[in-house]
Structure formats: C-alpha cells, structure tokens
Amino acid sequence: MKVLHLLASWKWTGPAEPALEGAAVLARRPGVEVRVGLSSLQGRDQENQVEKEARRLGLETLEGLKLPRHLNLAQLPGDVRRLAGILKEGRFDLVHCHTLVDHLSAALARLAAGLHIPLVRTWYDPDGPSGSFRESWLVRSGLDGAVLPGSQAAGRLARKTKGRVKTRILLPPVDLERFDPSLPAMRREYCCGEEDFILGVVARMQPHRRWDLLLAAFRRALWKAPDLKLIVLGRGPGWEDLVFAPAGKMGLGDRLVLAGYRRGREFAATLRTFDALVFLVPGSDGTCRAVRQAQAAGVPVLASRRGILPDLVEDGVDGILVEEREEELARAMAEIARDRERARAMGEAARRRAERDYAESVFVEETLGLYREVLEGGGACAG
User: Fold this and answer.
1) Helix 326-338 × helix 340-357 angle, to 10°
2) Which one of 121, 164, 236, 337 is most buried, by most CB atoms within 10 A?
C-alpha cells in the first residue's frame, strides 16, 4: 500500500506533530510505503520546522509543493497542478490529508487528474468539520474516509455526508515506551523534595490559557496543602506578564518552577516528575497530546470540561474534571495532594487508558483498516 500524507504547515504546532508522528508509525509497518508532501515555505528569519522534524523521523518527502498554512489563492493553482501530475503517475494508492488547505489542494488535483484515487482526512478539532463553504464542499465531494477524535465530530460528519464516508474514531498515537512511568524523573533537577506534591502545567504563555485562574487556585490550595509545588512547562511572549510577575505578587516564588520549553527525553522525564497534571484550555492541537502523554507517563489529570477533555479524563478514575472556578479547582488540587494513595491509583488508571487507547499498534491497525475499506470502495468519482 502506497500512501501520500499531505500537511500544509511549516510550523511545529497544531496538528503538525501528531500528523507526522502518525505517518512515521505507519511507515514502519511492513508493506506500507509512506511519503509526505509538506510546505516548502518558512517565516521571516524562521526555519521550516516541519521539514526538519520529518527528516528526524526518517520520512521521505515530496518536493515542489507550497502548501501554505492559510489558504493562498495565488499559490493554490501551482500545488494543484503539481499534485495532479503526481496522481497521474500512479505513484500512490491513497492520499491522507491533515488540514483544510492540503485537503482542498488534493481534492482539486483529483478533479484535474480525472482519477478515482481515494482521499482520507484527519480532523483534530473535537467539533469536526466546520460549516464553512469550502469545508462543506470538501466533505460532500472530496472525501472517502475520515479519522475523527471523538463521537461529536463523527456525528457532525455523518449528518453532513449521510453516512457515505467511512470513518474511524481514533486519537493520534503516543509512544508508550518513551513515556514509561518506570523511567527516571527529574525531581532533583527542579529542586523538589520527596515531600512535595508536584502539580504540572504544559501550555503556551497566552492569556486564553487561563493562567489567572491557575495561579489564583494554586495560591488558595496552598492553604490546605502547603506541600504543593507547581512546575510550568511552556514558552511564549507572555511568560513575564502572565506568570512570573503575578506569581511574584501572590508570594508564590518559592512554590513555583518555570521550566521553560523542554523536548525529547527531558520533556518525557519532566512529565514523569509530575504527581498530577493541570490542564484547563486545549491549545492548537484539539486532541490535547500533552494530556495523553501525561496519562502514558502514569500521571492523573485535573481538567476542565472544555473540548475533548471530558472524553480523555474519566472523573474520579484517572483524573478529576472541574468547572473553571477558583474555589473548585483549588479544592481538587488540595484533595489530590492530601490523598497520595488515590493519586497513585488514578495515575495507574491513566496509564492503562493510554495502553488501551493511544498505543501505536492500535493506531496502525485502525488506520490501515480504514484505508482498506476506502480502497475497496474504489474512491469517490472525480467530478
């Protein structure tokens, strides 16, 4: 089976990481050939991060595509012509898209080539397809298979397509070996003692991520659980105004660690350092990979009820779901810190969930099953 994955992004953000890591997992399966068509663009004084990561993952890339992150009508015709030529050469059995721009490019290329090659799309937003004109046209005329993060997205797509499109409810895989809870953590590196109960946060320094609520709730929780410590993993221009300065005014300096941006082994080791993860607002990746990675590391999650979070966290089993109110979040922080046996049990349940739902083997079998169903259907007729 020969599959072309398309990703219209040059920034390592949003769906870029789960899309490429999923493609790399599929490429390791015997009998599956994967190539990726990526954006060749980059920002001013910024490198193309996606191309760099694709090379690191050992993925073979397809040259000659622009694929901007945001639709550019001046660049679209060139990408359509390039893709139509590739499809006519018969080099791929199926095309798998990951954003609106690459999906539109592939659908128009299929029309231009006059071929029946199937198109599959992954949606990372828990709401699924939007109601925009372009997306509505694509799900009606340019889609044969879909990977969706939850039942809400699947239901919306089914209503739009009247069940014509083959689907899978499936989340991107997590490397369970990399986040193995038995591997070393970094408590000493972050100056945390064994008596400390460490709450962790993984988020960009942006106002909408509710840093105000987080810090206020943490300060309140310290009244009942003075052994709490907060480690913040993240970057962004607002770190001083949103976190550092407010924490100083609240007197949290000795209970707060700003860990900055971590990658690779250090990131996984830092997650294993957490006794619980606090996650309030999903970022640009609607599948909340930081939550799923923390669960793989055996870490329970205190989460809001936004987006896909209620589907990822089972309240009272592998974490706690809270309303976005200071007193409720503070109470959850204090309760989990004061009952460490319960926290450990939740962490073990979180790891079991990761093994059941996020394993690479599960992702590969479900995705290839979808591919086979779509290929047996012959793809949608161009035009």
Assistant:
1) 100
2) 121
